[in-house]
Amino acid sequence: MPSGEKLYTGAEINLESASDLNKKHIKTVVEGALRPEPNKVFLGMRPRVWMYNTAGENPKSKLDKWLKKRGTAPVLLSDVKPAVTSKIIDATLFNNGFFKSYTEYQIADKKRTAEVIYTSHIEKPYLIKELDYSISDDSLNHIIQNDEKKSLIKPDEEYNLNVLKNERERIDAKLKDNGYFYFNPDYLLFKADTSEANHSVNLKLMLKDSVPQTALTIYHIRKVVIDQDYSLNEDATEIKKDTMMFQNTVFMVNKAVPSINPKEILRSVYLKKNEVFSRKNHAITLNRLMSLDNFKFVRVKFTNSDTTAAGYLDVTILMTPMPKRSFRAEMDLVTKSNNFTGPRMNLSLQNRNTFHGAEILKLNMSGSFEAQLNGTEKNRYSYSWNPQLDLTFPRFITPFNINRSSSIYIPKTNFSLSYNYLKRVDYFDMKTFQFGYSYKWKENIVKEHELTPINVSFSTIGNKSVAFQALLDSIPYLKKSYEEQFIAGGSYSFTYNEQVLAGKKMQYFFHATTEVAGNAFSLAKHIAGEKVSSADPSKVVGSVYSQFAKLSLEGRAYYNFRDKNSLAMRIFAGVGKPYGNSSVLPYSKQFFSGGPNSLRAFQINSVGPGTFNQDSINTGFLYMGGDVKLEANAEYRFGIYRYFKGALFVDAGNVWLLKSNPTNIGSPFMLSNFADQLAVGTGFGLRVDVSFFVLRFDLAMPLRKPWLEENHRWVANQIDFGSSAWRKDNLVLNVAIGYPF
């Protein structure tokens, strides 16, 4: 420290009051007024201060310059202005209803450090008795009072300046939705009368004296002009454009550039000629036009109309289009936990505005090759190729009309057609055709729906090797799973996601998916007088069709601490029930447990079903799934240094077969003993988080192995990091992109 200086280590808040108050909450409010912040402490030390001081005043070497840049200057006691901070604390308390508080301070110093102790003397806060509206303009007064039930100011609640500010913003938004284009929240004034006894305050809402006439005028839209080919390029001003009138809207047309059908554009434009201006409609228009995914930028410009009558606006919507076609190529090198490694390539061609209705057509062609470099299947390899065609419409495509919603999000209809060829050399060939027809729409920023009324997949397996057939014959459950590969049904999913709400201390996420298949075929068979039974399954197009129902639920909670660390928790439950024409769920519809986004202490898809040990048989790349899945995860996420994040986690779960499943593998799911069959693991994670990209390394080890004998399933007492054999059998390194949940 410089001569005569001491390191400032922070402040302490003491509250003195004769009333019974929520001091914990008040302290939290007051702490936001403390200035300055002391240097951050890590394990009792201040490494960034050490880096700063080590570099010296005038660093010469690159290392010293780096240390200086990464370090932080020590916060000295002389940097603290406790008298000023005391006044800021008093002002903060005043803004929260403690009108007669005052703060004292004293400095508690040690040999080299010092802290400041602030003592605030407070009385009980003032409560709002009533709010009186005294708006001089009758039209404004009518709108505001009609919306009084939505007011943020409630009687008998504590006075809070932020609530008053938010109420002004709310009223301003309401007025702008009713045509008051030039209104401003600063034109509203709250007057407070604290003369009442019992610490109560009366509020009066008024207009300021200096409100301009334009702010008190209701504005209508006189003219709407749309330009789909707007550019900031100076040369663009030389392009001559024609004009076209469509549904009372002027379109600027550049014949050299293909444009979206005006009818489709107007589906997303909620600013209409002769209608009252609404900021809500302005926001809906912007969001929906950008959601078309055909424009780089969208700008809505308002100008006073040149008409002699007051209260009219001209609207010009300027849109900068994206390139009509784009091509993308990706090359990856993929390595899996089952020791298969190889390259993967994806080629994608995208065409925008395919049928002049903002439709997006995507053609993907992907291929991969992978081989096992070591392990039990060494020199085994496979390859695949997968063409896929997607066509997305920015509207509902239905046999009946659906009224246009006022949501800021555009509903979308998607048609998908794909083919996948998979060659497992010396095992089998699999060909899969899939067709899907789905709707996706957002109710609001946190609620999203997806309905897939038609989802059909048809798979055939050929060129079965003797080894593969022997494997299927030895495990009837796998054999049955692979036989039933014609799936025709539909699904619905709902997502509630609060992670998009920045700054929320507790964020929740919920996802539910339900799926059914085969019922239409079984109904047709029943009408035709045929009996449907899994013992003698019926066929469609020469293949046994699957019949099942499936439901999965996933809930997450994220608790965000003030230091930007967080606690993330997840629970997953799923069940699938084959019936009618099926006795086993199709392999692609079964539940699996284990892997980078599941139980990280176990290899991918290797846990279960129940107490079954998949290592006891050599299934190669095939894994055993289940009809029921339960899984829970907890993870504490913390910062290490800049982009480097850490995590401590615990995972638990398993999959089971239903008791009605005829296959005798593992123990079936039973409520009475499922907890004794959970696999449990724990570990440490290192993440490189640069916002748009997260590279994750999770090192985990099992704590409980459900396939061991009862009373011997907990294996924490066997942990031996010094043993290479234990490390080989128990440590699992997961490398993945993105957070696990």
UniProtKB/TrEMBL annotation:
Q: Which residues form the Bacterial surface antigen (D15) domain?
A: 546-712
Q: Which UniProt keywords apply?
A: Cell outer membrane, Membrane, Signal, Transmembrane
Top-level taxon in the UniProt lineage: Bacteria
Q: Which GO terms describe its cellular component?
A: outer membrane
Cellular compartment(s): Membrane
Q: What is this protein called?
A: Surface antigen
The organism of origin for this protein:
Aquipluma nitroreducens
